[in-house]
Amino acid sequence: MSDRETEKRLAAEAAVALVEEGMAIGLGTGSTAAYAIRKLGERVKSGLAVRALPTSAQTADLAREVGIPLIGFDRVTSLDMTLDGADEIDPALNLIKGGGGALFREKIVAAASRRLIIFADSSKRVDTLGRFPLPLEVNPFGWQVAAEQVRALGAQVSLRSRDGTLFTTDNQGYILDCLFDTIEDPAALERKLKAIVGIVETGLFVGMAEMACVAVGETVHEILPAN
Ligand code: 5RP
In this predicted structure, what is the pLDDT of residue 227? Predict the structure, then answer.
């Protein structure tokens, strides 16, 4: 396992250690989240009773495979804790998410959770957000209009495709990857983006994370938001 993969696994496992008996848990999406899902599956096999709400079809599939009981918003409208990865984490624990395209469901699940715990390898920590292109989920009809308005805010915008095929989300949306370089005021940018018609949700998670478990080598740091 590479150093990066070891960091992902250790960070994810530290977050899973916070899960307690009886909790309703939101489960994030991505390669780091996969480590958390597998670890939670081990704990369930050892007798831990939890229910989990997945943020993507990919996460639901893996959770089923490892034996984690799943629930939906038809059964619960609030969750004890959500465990999720991130693409960038700033010192205030503002995040860029959506590299895996699940940002819309991830944000709904995070918003429904009393606690949002993020886990990541050391490469995800940044002083200022924006080097990672910010993913935005947009409605397929008229996405070009939204893209033009995001360009006017200073971003280089590209419509996401994978292997030459247009990427569609679990909600049949498109993703715009928007390179801002630096996002000095994430809250202000979030307000501007949310005012653009056609943007369904943004990958900016501002003031939502309670703690980040970040592994540096073999040590996991539990990071709280800096003021
Ligand atoms: C998916 C996400 C992921 O949490 C984010 O992209 C990090 O993924 P990975 O753990 O694979 O680096 O937001 O929408």
Answer: 73
